[in-house]
Amino acid sequence: MGTLATSAVVSVLAGCAAVVQSRTGRALDAGHITARRGILIGLALTATGLAAAIPGLPGVLTAAGLIGTGTGPITSLGFAALAATTPASHFGQTLGAAKVGRELGDAGGPLLVTAVATAATLTYGYAVLALLLAALALVFIAMRGG
Predict the structure, then answer these.
(1) By C-alpha distance, which of 104, 105, 123, 103 is closest to 113?
(2) What is the DSSP string of 78-115?
(3) Which residues lie below 8 Å from residue 23, measured CB to CB, with a gap of 6+?
């Protein structure tokens, strides 16, 4: 893809995440959604977006929209859950560590996909990341009270 197409994909992903983050936060504050349910929905949407990535601009734009829509609730609800359960004396340390973890994920996901794509194809790279997210959702479901 060229520069313009790549920029469009990144913009769709970021735009969807931004819109969903604020709406998810409002839904949590109003009691319409729980952090647990919202994070599970986000993981499912993100995994679906990765699994549905079809080569070519329309497929990649669709995947970017699903991934952005999925990462929005994961981010906002994850940080909200941490903020709600962290003692005031450890608040900065906890959220700082969470931010480092998020940045490692932002860097590690593309590295994982690239490593798999180098050995196979980009589609397989996305599939591996989708499977990891689905496995994370299953672990999250299996955790009682998590």
Answers:
(1) 123
(2) HHHHHHHHS-GGGHHHHHHHHHHHHHHHHHHHHHHHHH
(3) 72
Q: Average model confidence (pLDDT) for the chain?
A: 84
C-alpha gyration radius of the chain: 16
Burial grade of 2 (CB within 10 A; 0-12, 13-18, 19 or more)? exposed
pLDDT tens for 70-83 read 999 988 898 888 88
Distance from C-alpha of 51 to C-alpha of 34, rounded to nearest angstrom: 26
Query: What's the pLDDT tens digit per position in 13-54?
Result: 899 999 999 899 999 999 999 998 999 999 999 988 988 877
Give the whole-angstrom CA distance, residue 12 versus residue 21.
Answer: 14
What residue has token string 């080569």? 55
Alpha helices in the chain (DSSP H): 3-29, 35-51, 57-85, 91-119, 122-142
